[in-house]
């Protein structure tokens, strides 16, 4: 529960400090609210894999501006090396996220990031990830529009 509260606090700080007085930019979401947000297995800035459920928590990743997405990644999912055109930051909310930088998803390049961990996805930098038997939930924030381009 601490990890969920910590991640949501980060989201509030990230989005709240940039909010104008308009109600469209003000968001307060409890864990129950987040669970009710529609999810998809594909979308801008995501892997498009069936084992990854994506919820847009703030903004629109297809348009210019700040966005935050939540990835719920099923156990034993492998996400191959890819890039995004925007720089992104991420926080692991729950589970263990095995994340690495480089052009090929190889076990020796992975670092295990437990709940509460933070990492970056610099624009254009190839990176990849895996989950183990517990899966993972990750919050990613960037400034869109974003994309996902897999390496050949």
Just give the CATH class: Mainly Beta
What structural class results from the helix and strand content?
mainly beta
Average pLDDT over all residues? 86
- CATH architecture level-2 label: Sandwich
Question: So how many helices?
Answer: 2
How much β-strand is present in the residues?
A: 35-45%
State the end-to-end distance: 39 Å
Task: Describe the largest sheet.
Answer: 8 strands, antiparallel
> Topology as H/E string?
HHEEEEEEEE
- Count the E strands: 8
Helix content: 10-25%
Evaluate the radius of gyration.
Answer: 15 Å
Low-confidence stretches: 4-22
Would you identify the CATH H-level superfamily? Jelly Rolls
CATH topology group: Jelly Rolls
Number of domains: 1
Q: Which geometry do the CA atoms define?
A: globular
């Amino acid at each position: 529960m601490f990890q969920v509260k910590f991640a949501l606090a980060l989201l509030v700080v990230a989005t709240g400090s940039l909010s104008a007085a308009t109600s469209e930019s003000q968001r307060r979401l409890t864990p129950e609210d987040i669970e009710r947000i529609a999810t998809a297995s594909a979308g801008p800035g995501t892997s498009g894999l069936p084992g990854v459920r994506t919820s847009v928590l703030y903004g629109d990743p297809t348009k210019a501006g700040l966005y935050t997405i939540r990835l719920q990644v099923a156990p034993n999912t492998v996400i191959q090396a890819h890039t995004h055109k925007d720089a992104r930051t991420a926080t692991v909310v729950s589970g263990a996220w095995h994340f690495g930088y480089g052009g090929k998803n190889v076990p020796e390049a992975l670092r295990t990031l437990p709940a509460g961990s933070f990492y970056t996805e610099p624009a254009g930098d190839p990176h990849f990830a895996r989950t183990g038997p517990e899966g993972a939930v990750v919050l990613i924030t960037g400034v869109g529009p974003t994309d996902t381009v897999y390496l050949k």
